[in-house]
């Protein structure tokens, strides 16, 4: 029976314009709201978005529907966002649910329209006597909501005018009773409960509206922005003062894709409590990458700024340790040099080869300079050591040959032991790849009943042009946002 029903409803979809394949297997009554990122419903073949005609189910026209993810308006029933639509009129966008029992919880949603709006609800039902055939009853009811507040609309509480269709051909077989009847009353007249579908939507009059908090067959869905996560990695975990390190990032968008986005690299140096933005980098289709030159131990992180279409996120902190750079030369019985980063009062110790015991000490001046007298007998090999402190690892000069006739070898800056590249946090810092949960990818909507992806609130110039429909659906456009994804 389930297979026959699925074939029947698939024919309904193809013939009447629901544009979705039915499944009757999704669990109902989930504990707590299910968060939907963009339009990525977890079981889109059972519950999702619908685009239907207002005068009749299939008569929805050829409009390319462009939804927006909107923050608000006001305080949404669930979470911080909702879906916004601004249709041309004559069709309705909203919720769709296929159910194994039309006498079950049904379908309801919350709607907000600044000017008020009208809509339509449909219920499909196959009577027990029609099992195994293409005969399906459809009920229709008009909807209207007032202006300027979130309102709850329950399709299960409505009375419907009923028509019997052959869903294999779309042909009308019979008209139902002359007066509208509630689902419970009509199903009782037709022999009892049965499987079916609910759809409830708004926008018939062409006025903009927002929807949120779908409750479909006992499960409530919170419509939110796309979730993002950021990874971070560096080419080296420790450097010597003055050396560069490359910090990479990786932005991953869950439930959809962004046409454009940037991320901000922030730092927090040793002794600081606040994070400071230092660079903005592109993050879609490329690995965000910045070269930095920290003077002392510094933490870095990537940040993606919250926007209507996608929620903000921050990577884990990445620490880069920095050793003091010590440069020294010998001439005329003295060893002189500099310590970086420059700081007055840094202890400097001169060690002689053998036991490498200190034979002279001093401190740096404000420019990081020092001078050490080499004790007699001067001839030998020396190294200048500087201890860790003030956010820096310890440093040491290259070995120096000192004394009569000694030749000073070329000076090479000290450096910490070589370190492997840092282990990236999850997700790895690789170019984000377009994901396609529920069939949604860049420019592709999820596979729902003409269910378009997402756009943010009332943009003057959406980042993804509403006028360019994806090739896979004539009634849907890609997710878009009035914010182009700028990182600041």
Kindly list the characteristics that best describe this protein.
40% strand, mainly beta, 32 strands, eight-stranded antiparallel sheet, Immunoglobulin-like, seven-stranded mixed sheet, 488 residues, disordered C terminus
**Overall shape:** rod-shaped
For the record, give the distance between the C-alpha atoms at the N and C termini, rounded to a whole number.
56 Å
Fraction in helix: under 10%
Number of strands: 32
Give the amount of beta strand, in percent: 35-45%
Summed up, the helix count is: 2
In short:
With 488 residues, this protein is mainly beta. Helices cover 5% and strands 40% of the residues.
Summarize the structure in words.
This protein has 488 residues and is mostly beta strands. It has three domains: 2-224, no CATH class; 227-322, Immunoglobulin-like (Sandwich), CATH 2.60.40; 325-402, Immunoglobulins (Immunoglobulin-like). It has two helices and 32 strands. The strands form six sheets. Strands 2, 5, 7, 8, 10, 11, 12 and 13 form an eight-stranded antiparallel sheet that branches. Strands 1, 3, 4, 6, 9, 14 and 15 form a seven-stranded mixed sheet that branches. A hairpin with a 5-residue loop joins strand 27 (347-352) and strand 28 (358-363). The longest helix is centred in the first third of the chain and has 15 residues, at 2-16.
Write the SSE topology.
Layout: H1 2-16, E1 34-37, E2 47-53, E3 68-71, E4 81-85, E5 91-99, E6 107-112, E7 117-125, E8 135-145, E9 151-154, E10 159-166, E11 171-175, E12 181-182, H2 183-189, E13 196-202, E14 209-216, E15 219-224, E16 227-234, E17 238-240, E18 245-254, E19 262-269, E20 276-282, E21 289-292, E22 298-304, E23 313-314, E24 318-323, E25 325-331, E26 334-340, E27 347-352, E28 358-363, E29 369-373, E30 380-386, E31 395-396, E32 400-402
């Amino acid at each position: 029976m389930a297979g026959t029903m699925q074939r029947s409803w698939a024919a309904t979809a193809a013939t009447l314009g629901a544009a979705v394949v039915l499944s009757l297997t999704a669990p109902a009554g989930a504990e707590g709201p299910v968060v939907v990122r963009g339009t990525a419903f977890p079981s889109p073949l059972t519950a999702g978005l619908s685009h239907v005609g207002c005068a009749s189910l299939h008569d929805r026209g050829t409009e390319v529907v462009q939804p927006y993810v909107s923050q608000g308006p006001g305080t949404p029933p669930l979470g911080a966002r909702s879906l916004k639509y601004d249709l041309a009129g004559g069709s309705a966008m909203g919720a769709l649910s296929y159910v194994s029992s039309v006498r079950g919880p049904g379908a309801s949603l919350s709607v907000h329209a600044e000017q008020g709006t009208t809509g339509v609800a449909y219920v499909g039902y196959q009577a027990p006597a029609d099992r195994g055939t293409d005969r399906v009853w459809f009920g229709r009811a008009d909807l209207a909501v007032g202006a300027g507040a979130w309102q709850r609309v329950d399709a299960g509480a409505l009375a419907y005018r009923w028509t019997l269709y052959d869903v294999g051909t779309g042909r009308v077989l019979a008209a139902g009773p002359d007066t509208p009847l509630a689902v419970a009353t009509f199903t009782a007249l037709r022999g009892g409960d049965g499987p079916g579908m609910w759809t409830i939507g708004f926008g018939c009059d062409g006025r903009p509206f927002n929807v949120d908090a779908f409750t479909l067959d006992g499960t409530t869905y919170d419509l939110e922005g796309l979730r993002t996560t950021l990874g971070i990695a560096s080419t080296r975990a420790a450097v010597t003062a003055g050396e560069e390190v490359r910090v990479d990032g990786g932005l991953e968008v869950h439930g959809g894709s962004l046409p454009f986005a940037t991320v901000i690299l922030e730092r927090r140096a040793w002794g600081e409590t606040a994070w400071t933005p230092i660079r903005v980098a592109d993050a879609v289709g490329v690995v965000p990458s910045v070269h930095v030159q920290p003077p002392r131990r510094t933490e870095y992180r990537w940040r993606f700024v919250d926007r209507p279409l996608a929620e903000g996120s921050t990577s884990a902190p990445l620490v880069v340790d920095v050793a003091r750079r010590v440069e020294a030369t010998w001439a005329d019985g003295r060893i002189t040099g500099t310590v970086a980063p420059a700081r007055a009062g840094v202890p400097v110790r001169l060690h002689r080869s053998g036991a490498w015991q200190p034979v002279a000490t001093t401190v740096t001046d404000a420019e990081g300079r020092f001078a050490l007298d080499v004790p007699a007998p001067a001839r030998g090999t020396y190294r200048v050591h500087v201890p860790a402190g003030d956010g820096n690892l310890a440093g040491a000069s290259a070995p120096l040959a000192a004394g009569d006739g000694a030749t000073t070898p070329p000076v090479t800056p000290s450096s910490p032991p070589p370190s492997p590249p840092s282990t990236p946090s999850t997700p790895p810092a690789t170019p984000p790849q377009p994901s396609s949960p529920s069939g949604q990818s860049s420019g592709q909507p999820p596979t729902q009943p003409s269910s378009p992806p997402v756009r943010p609130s009332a943009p003057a110039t959406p980042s993804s042009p509403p006028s360019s429909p994806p090739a896979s659906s004539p009634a849907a456009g890609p997710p878009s946002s009035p914010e182009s994804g700028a990182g600041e």
